[in-house]
From TrEMBL:
GO terms for biological process: protein ufmylation. Gene3D superfamilies: NAD(P)-binding Rossmann-like Domain. Residues 1-72 form the THIF-type NAD/FAD binding fold domain. Keywords: ATP-binding, Metal-binding, Nucleotide-binding, Ubl conjugation pathway, Zinc. SUPFAM superfamilies: Activating enzymes of the ubiquitin-like proteins. GO terms for molecular function: ATP binding; metal ion binding; UFM1 activating enzyme activity. It comes from Stegodyphus mimosarum. Belongs to the ubiquitin-activating E1 family. UBA5 subfamily. This is Ubiquitin-like modifier-activating enzyme 5. One of its GO terms (cellular component) is cytosol. InterPro entries: ThiF/MoeB/HesA, ThiF_NAD_FAD-bd, Ubiquitin-activating_enz.
Length: 84
């Protein structure tokens, strides 16, 4: 929905892969099975709005190391390198 509304940048975080079991509740397509969810989502969102800037992070944000990076991205990952 945000991509359709013309938002300038989306930052995606997930560590999982698309599985056929995901098809009934998410916007993934069967041909995307096996791809990382962030990569599959970015490709789909780009088709919806090629002007949106997409930044993907394929990791679990709940580990200590990754959570620190997640917070850093929130502080500096905005459209103009500011907070999100």
């Amino acid at each position: 929905m945000l991509a359709r509304c013309g938002i300038g940048k989306l930052i995606l975080f997930d560590y999982d892969k698309v599985e056929l079991a995901n098809m009934n509740r998410l916007f993934f397509q069967p041909y995307q099975a096996g791809l990382s969810k962030v990569d599959a989502a970015a490709k789909t969102l780009f088709l919806i709005n090629p002007d949106v800037e997409l930044e993907t992070h394929n990791y679990n944000i709940t580990s200590v190391k990754n959570f620190k990076h997640f917070l850093e991205v929130l502080k500096t990952g905005g459209k103009n390198s500011g907070p999100v």
